[in-house]
Amino acid sequence: MTIAAFSTYMLALLMAAVTPGPAMFAVISTGVSRGIGPALACGLGIALSDMVLVSVVLAGLSVVAQTFGWLFLVIKYAGAAYLMFLGYCMWRAAAAPPAGAPVGQAGLSRALSLGAAIGFGNPKAILFHASLMPLILDVGGLDWFGIAAVLATVFVVNIGAMGGYALLSAASSRWFRTTGAVRAPNRVAGSAMIATGVVIAARS
Fold first, then answer.
1. Mind listing the pLDDT tens digit of every residue in the chain (204 residues)?
2. Distance between CA atoms of 103 and 93, rounded to whole angstroms?
3. Residue pair 33/96 in contact by the 8 Å Cβ criterion
4. How many Å separate Cα 126 from the centre of its chain?
5. CA distance linking residue 98 with residue 182, whole number of Å
6. Which long-range contacts (CB under 8 A, 24 or more apart) does 179-186 make?
7. Which of 1, 5, 108, 200 has the greatest number of CB atoms lying within 10 Å of its CB?
């Protein structure tokens, strides 16, 4: 694997990661409504799920994954329903939690699970990786070091992009609170999560 090919692959992944979509909106909504910790946990779930999908492609199991496409559909609709439920709860919340409020382990675990559900619930993600890697990398010639480098790149790019969105959303949440608009973060985040859930459920 040449440096040029590796750099091209990293750039392609970065462009895909920063493109607006359900993953981005989920991280932003979580950051606005719940703070930086849960938003980063959501982004971590997205990054880990993408690593699993890339591992499936590298193992040559993309055909098997397509055969069991019904499982991806179940995860997709479950994730979409969960997002819409969270959005409904956020919309009805009386006010955003106070800035600096501690986040429990259960809250971080839920955010991590949400990110993973969004990642696994995208039926096109595995096809994206299966079509992208052979175009740029010599997949058949990858040794264990090359495979580890690809997986590390997928993780770093995803966590970097989602982490950036998490930081921005958490900063905007603090701005809302300092201006006294305590209901606004929940209303904005709730609407975004409901819309994201609808997009996930509707896309083919």
1. 678 777 888 888 888 888 777 788 888 888 877 888 999 999 999 999 999 989 888 887 555 556 656 666 676 677 677 667 767 776 775 444 444 444 566 678 888 988 888 888 766 677 778 777 777 777 777 788 888 988 999 999 999 999 999 998 877 766 655 544 555 656 666 676 677 677 767 765
2. 17
3. yes
4. 14
5. 9
6. 182/95, 182/96, 183/94, 183/95, 183/96, 184/96, 185/32, 185/33, 185/96, 186/33, 186/90, 186/91, 186/93, 186/95, 186/96
7. 200
Q: Which amino acid is at 24?
A: M
